[in-house]
Design brief:
76 residues
Length: 76
């Protein structure tokens, strides 16, 4: 089924850029969102998707790195 969506041109352009960074299309993003709110994805499927995304997008700190709140906020 096709639907028509009305949105600001800038919003659509930014959303297309966002989709491109995730190797999908704006249509794909909207379709996935509708699946989520429509209940097609179960909890296990969402969890598996989350794991894959974290593997792809997560960074890795050097093993000697220690979090320092003062350094984070340039406090001394």
């Amino acid at each position: 089924m096709n639907i028509t969506l009305s949105a600001d041109e800038k919003l659509i352009a930014k959303s297309r850029e966002y989709a491109k960074t995730r190797n999908t299309t704006l249509n794909g993003l909207i379709r996935d969102y509708l699946r989520q709110v429509g209940g097609e994805k179960d909890a296990a499927e969402c969890a598996a998707e989350f794991v894959e995304l974290t593997k792809k997008m997560a960074g890795e700190s050097d093993s000697s790195f220690r979090f320092d709140r003062d350094a984070l906020y340039d406090r001394v």
